[in-house]
Amino acid sequence: MSQVLDTPPHTPAPADDDLAALAARHGLSVSGARPSLPEYVRQLWARRHFITAFATAKLTAQYSQAKLGQLWQVMTPLLNAAVYYFIFGVLLGTKHGVPDYVPFLVTGVFVWTFTQSSIMAGTRAISGNLGLVRALHFPRAALPISFCLQQLQQLLFSMAALVVILLGFGVPVAPSWVLAVPALVLQFMFNAGVSMVMARWGAKTPDIAQLMPFVLRTWMYVSGVMWSIDKLTAKDHLPHLVTVVLETNPAAVYIDLMRFALIDSFHAAQLPPHVWATALGWALLAGVGGFIYFWKAEETYGRG
Amino acid sequence: MAEQNSGRIPTVIADGVDIVYRVNGTGAGRGTATAALHRILRRRQAEKAAGVRRVHAVKNVSFVAYKGEAIGLIGTNGSGKSTLLKAVAGLLPVENGRIYTNGQPSLLGVNAALMNDLTGERNVHLGGLAMGMSREQIRERYQEIVDFSGINDKGDFITLPMRTYSSGMAARLRFSIAAAKDHDVLLIDEALATGDRSFQKRSEQRIRELRQRAGTVFLVSHNNKSIRDTCDRVLWLERGELRMDGPTEEVLKAYEAFTGGSDKKSPPKAKAA
Fold it and tell me: Looking at A205-219, B115-129, B138-152, B170-184, which range is the least confident one?
């Protein structure tokens, strides 16, 4: 090369094929190679305690410097809901015709926030944690999944606040509240899947993290977070395609399922057709598809 | 070549390894908006013209490490030692060539997994889990880790957030967590230089224990004494190239002549390829 230095006497490195053959003879494996899919799932399962511990640690660390501490876990979503109520309920008057507007809105905001922050966190899961990725060995899918789990824990705090709001606005406790559990499980699968897709994109092109807030805000406005999709589609003046797209939008599906589960004045007739099948379909498509898509690039995460 | 060594078991084989970092945002030497726009518009052109700097950190390095060896990695700052270590651990993808390993080599270090806002206690658990220890293993070794770190020598500090620790205390806890696990192939990056003198002595002792249990140890250090104490073979990297590979004394002598004589003229760390 360009160095003009005396080469000290040392044993020359053996030729390439010798080394490959030597590795093969002693059964050495290629370092950093991508494991097979079943092996990957097994490794991920072995790290389940790390995934949960990391999520809880992130959640706790979030407010550890604030004076009110963990109280912010509940305060933040409540303040968010208050802002949306002021703008959409009071100023714009979107609430006309929607019974129990405050529970309707707050449920929508909380459920949407779960998807939104999971996807945002997923986008930065690899690119924002390069130090971790370059220092330790673990299946990288642990990161986006862990971030989604953190958001799920955050949502559970919000749900506690939601129960108080619901009771405060006279919504009765009903057996249908149990349906919130399968709805959340499906939404979690969907969020984790999308997060893994975004994590792969974000790892390759960190700029996506700058773009996502705009994409997500647009998505929020078409998902019926603060207005009723059912009211809009019932008027029958929209093209059929628009109605179908609005009704099969996964965010809208999960929001409506949660409203159906929790609010007594939100009737089954207001749900889009085949809503549980749609919810399950999205969860499987995103969850399984996203996981495989993420795994396909496993060995490339961490490149600078 | 391989025939001569057939009696020994190789644990790590590096076969013509190249490692290249790509750094965005250095276009035309400035991170300005126009430079970024320029980069996007000229994407199809060569990476260099597009403003992506390629840093060729390790160039065509080949070596075979055998079971029972302790190998020192030396070289001036920025010569690619840590990068090579990360590639052996499978944490950095290689550009060309292959690295074959027996078992999973692990870097000694958990810094990145720990969180300053959490208590030392929770960081011990988190760090252990991040290294792949089971919850039972962590529970068993918890007291050992805390005692070894000496965090509680001056009062109950383990239940305080890590951000309240002095830098020496934090470094000691990090080392203690990292050293709690046994490894097949152990990679150590300047870990010996943490803490005060008494802790350094304890950590050197711990490294020796880890060495006895691990198959092969790699040690990156600028401290020639600790290399002499622990290693029987040394790889000397300079500007990403393997300059010398041989017995510790021989290589260190040449290295000391190199650094002692031409320190001022030592080359810049990173070059655009």
Answer: B170-184
Handedness of CA A130, A135, A137, A143 (dihedral sign): negative
Instruction: Decide if B66 contacts B11 (C-beta within 8 A).
Output: yes
Amino acid letter, residue A212: M
> Rounded to a whole number, what is the distance in Å from the CA of A36 to chain B's nearest CA?
16
Note whether B52 contacts A: Cβ–Cβ < 8 A.
no
Q: CA dist B192 to A297, B171, B198, B224, Å?
A: 35, 11, 12, 12
* Sheet with B216-220, edge to edge strand ranges: B105-108, B185-189, B216-220, B70-74, B233-238, B241-247
Counting beta carbons within 10 angstroms of the beta carbon of residue A218, is it exposed (0 to 12), middle (13 to 18) or buried (19 or more)? Answer: exposed
Nearest to A221 by CA among A243, A249, A194, A257: A249
> Could you tell me if A46 lies within 8 Å of chain B, comparing CB atoms?
yes
**Alpha-carbon span A116 to A219, nearest angstrom:** 9
Retrieve residue A107's tokens: 């449920």
Q: In the block, which residue shows the tokens 């220890």? A: B133
Closest partner CB to B122 (pick from A23, A50, A57):
A57
One-letter amino acid identity for A122?
Answer: G
pLDDT exceeds cutoff 60 at A12: no
Can you give the pTM of this predicted structure?
0.81
Average pLDDT, chain B: 79
Contacts of A103 (CB under 8 A, 6+ apart): A162, A165, A166, A169, A171, A262, A263
Distance between CA atoms of B86 and B241, rounded to whole angstroms?
Answer: 16
Sign of the dihedral through C-alpha A186, A187, A192, A195: positive
3-state DSSP percent of chain B in helix, strand and coil, to 5:
40, 25, 35
Residue written as tokens 């401290």?
A: B223
Distance CA A288, CA B91 (A): 25
Torsion over CA: A287, A289, A294, A299 (sign): positive
CA distance A187 to A223: 14
Whether the CB-CB separation of B97 and B196 falls below 8 Å is answered with no
Judge whether residue B2 has pLDDT over 50: no
pLDDT at B213: 77
The SS3 assignment for B99 reads strand
Task: Give the pLDDT confidence of A41-90 residue by residue, as tens digits.
Answer: 999 999 999 999 999 999 888 887 778 878 888 888 788 888 888 887 78
Q: What is the ipTM of this complex?
A: 0.77
Instruction: Give the pLDDT of residue B268.
Output: 44
Q: Are A78 and A150 in contact (CB under 8 A)?
A: no
Contacts of B262 in chain A (CB under 8 A): none
CA angle, residues A230, A231, A233, in degrees to nearest 5: 65
The conformation of residue B267, written as its DSSP 8-state character, comes to P
CB < 8 Å from B in window 183-242 of A: none
Q: How many CB atoms lie within 10 A of CB A137?
A: 18
A26, A129, A136 member nearest B131 (Cβ):
A136
Predicted pLDDT of residue A216 = 94
